[in-house]
Amino acid sequence: MSEPKSPRRLRVSDLPERAKTLFEISPDTDELAMIAQQLDLEALRKLRFAGYVEADHDNDWRLEAELGATVVQPCVVTLEPVTTRLDENVIRHFVAHLPEDESDADEIELPEDESIERLGREIDLEAVMIEALALVLPLYPRTPGATIENVLVTEPGATPLSDEDMRPFAGLKSLRDKLKNDD
């Protein structure tokens, strides 16, 4: 007999104020493929998001969870597949009273704590999971030993420009060297 599936969205009005609400999300194969496509991954082999939501202060809620995933991305150098295991602790504070977004305001002050989100009628666990995964993905995945080589391209018979030649004072250096040799 299989365990009941955790809800993907929690209605705030249904959450108990004196107890933790446990959840665990493990997307099936089709869902993994959709998330992989959404995040521009070659593949998403595993994904698990498990934790709890509990009351935090007056009308606020706190989510604590562990995110585990195995992702496949193209190497930024060779384009070969790079498999990465990700394990991340996720914390979100859903706050009932954040400053309203006023379009007339010249300046809106945002909280410095990036884990703070506006509390709505529901807490979308799936959205938190996908956002947390997107934030921990390697920006520049590389296969072991992959390096970027310097490539110099120019017309036949011409001397290619190097990074040193492109520096603003490269011409002054050659002039200085020439003046030293003349002395």
Can you give keywords for this protein?
two-stranded antiparallel sheet, 3 helices
Write a structural description.
With 183 residues, the protein is of the alpha+beta class. The protein has a domain at 9-136. 19% of the residues lie in helices and 32% in strands. It is built from three helices and seven strands, in the order E-E-H-E-E-E-E-E-H-H. The protein has helices at residues 29-38, 125-136, 170-182; strands spanning 9-11, 21-25, 43-56, 60-74, 81-95, 116-118, 122-124. Strands 2-3-4-5-6 form a five-stranded mixed sheet, with helices on one face. The protein has a two-stranded antiparallel ribbon with strand order 1-7. Strand 4 and strand 5 form a beta hairpin. The radius of gyration is 26 Å and the shape is elongated. The mean pLDDT is 83.
Summarize the structure.
By secondary structure, this protein is of the alpha+beta class. The protein is 19% helix and 32% strand. It has a domain at 9-136.
Strand order of the largest sheet: 2-3-4-5-6
Which value, in Å, is the CA radius of gyration? 26 Å
| Distance N to C terminus | 92 Å
Helix content: 10-25%
Q: Give me the count of strands.
A: 7
Which structural class do you get from the secondary structure elements? alpha+beta
Report the order of strands and helices. Answer: EEHEEEEEHH
Q: How big a fraction of the residues is strand?
A: 25-35%
Please state the overall shape, judged from the principal axes of the Cα atoms.
elongated
Name the average pLDDT.
Answer: 83
Question: Count of helical segments?
Answer: 3
Given as residue ranges, the uncertain stretches (5+ residues, pLDDT < 50) are none
Tell me about the biggest sheet?
5 strands, mixed
